[in-house]
Design brief:
With 274 residues, this protein is α/β, with parallel strands linked by helices. The chain has one domain: Spore Coat Polysaccharide Biosynthesis Protein SpsA, Chain A (Alpha-Beta Complex). It is built from eleven helices and nine strands. Strands 1, 2, 3, 4, 5, 6, 7, 8 and 9 form a nine-stranded mixed sheet that branches. Helix 9 runs antiparallel to helix 10 and helix 10 runs antiparallel to helix 11. The radius of gyration is 18 Å and the shape is globular. The C terminus is likely disordered.
Length: 274
C-alpha cells in the first residue's frame, strides 16, 4: 500500500492461477496508476508455473498462494482481506489503463449516491495489441437480463457498502460470477453508473475461459438470466451471437468474425463482457 491517507484507500483484488505469461503486466498496470493510496491483493490458487517467483519480486503486494475452490472462492478471499473504501477486481491477464483508479475515485466522490461505476474497455491481444474498444451502455436491469453482461468487470469499481448489501460472489458460478453479482447489486437497491472512459484492457487469448470454455460460459450466463426473470429467446440469441464471434475472432476467420460482430452491434446488441 502506498501512503496519502487523506485519499480513500482503494483495494484491487487479483485472482491468479498459472498466469505467469501475463501477471507481470497486470501488476505493473496497477503499480503505475497515478492514484496514491492503493493496496493490491493477489490471491493465487497454488500456481505451478513462475507466478510465485514473479509475486516475490513485488514487495508492495499483499499476496497468498494456496489451493482454492475456484475463481469465485479466490476473489471472495480477496474481498474479505480488502481494507479499502473502494474495491476493484482485476484478473491476472487484464490491465488497467492510466488514470483508471483516480478517475473512478473522483467520480464516486462527486456522486455520493452511486455505489458502483464502470466504463468502456478495450479488447486486447496476448501481446497487448488493441483489437477494439467496446462501448458500454448506461445501466438498465431489464437490458442486463435480456442482452447479457453489460458491465465489464475489469472496468468496474464499487464502494464497500456493496458487501453489506449484496454479500460476496456466489461460489457456485465458475464463469459468470460477475454477471450474477451486478444483478444482485442492482436488486439490492444500489445505484450503478456508467462513465464515458476506457479504464481497462480485457485480454482475449487461447487459454482464457472466455475463449476456451465459451460454450459453458454461455450456458451459465443464460442460467443466471433466466433465474432473475430474463426472457427466453433474447438471451438465447445474444449468447449464441457472442459465442460465434469469439470463436471466429480467434481463428483463421478473424476478419469474418469482426464483421459479424459489427453487424450485431448495429442491431443494438452490444455491451457483453464475458
Amino acid at each position: 500500500m502506498r501512503g496519502h491517507e487523506s485519499q480513500p484507500l482503494v483495494s484491487i483484488i487479483t485472482p491468479s492461477f498459472n498466469q505467469a505469461s501475463f501477471i507481470e503486466r497486470t501488476i505493473a498496470s496497477v503499480e503505475s496508476q497515478d492514484y496514491p493510496n492503493v493496496e493490491h491483493i493477489v490471491i493465487d490458487g497454488g500456481s505451478s508455473d513462475e507466478t510465485i517467483e514473479i509475486l516475490k519480486q513485488h514487495p508492495h503486494l499483499d499476496w497468498l498462494s494456496e489451493p482454492d475452490d475456484g475463481q469465485s472462492s479466490a476473489i471472495n478471499k480477496g474481498f474479505k482481506k480488502a481494507r479499502g473504501e473502494i474495491i476493484g477486481w482485476l484478473n491476472s491477464d487484464d490491465v488497467y489503463y492510466p488514470g483508471a483508479i483516480r478517475e473512478a475515485v473522483e467520480y464516486l466522490q462527486a456522486h455520493s449516491e452511486t455505489a458502483l461505476v464502470y466504463s468502456d474497455f478495450m479488447e486486447i491481444e496476448a501481446d497487448d495489441r488493441e483489437r477494439a474498444r467496446v462501448r458500454t451502455l448506461p445501466f438498465d436491469l431489464g437490458r442486463m437480463l435480456n442482452q447479457g453482461n453489460l458491465i465489464p468487470q475489469p472496468s468496474t469499481f464499487f464502494r464497500r457498502i456493496v458487501f453489506e448489501r449484496a454479500g460476496y460472489l456466489n461460489p457456485e458460478y465458475r464463469y459468470a460470477m460477475d454477471y450474477d453479482y451486478w444483478i444482485r447489486i442492482a436488486k439490492s437497491g444500489l445505484r450503478l453508473d456508467r462513465i464515458d472512459r476506457c479504464w481497462s484492457g480485457f485480454r482475449l487469448h487461447g487459454t482464457s475461459k472466455t475463449i476456451s470454455e465459451s460454450s459453458r460460459a454461455w450456458r451459465e450466463h443464460r442460467r443466471i438470466s433466466r433465474a432473475y426473470g430474463g426472457q427466453f429467446l433474447v438471451p438465447l440469441f445474444y449468447g449464441y451471437r457472442r459465442l460465434v464471434y469469439l470463436r471466429l475472432a480467434n481463428s483463421r476467420f478473424r476478419a469474418l468474425g469482426m464483421r459479424v460482430n459489427r453487424v450485431f452491434r448495429r442491431l443494438g446488441l452490444k455491451g457483453f463482457h464475458g
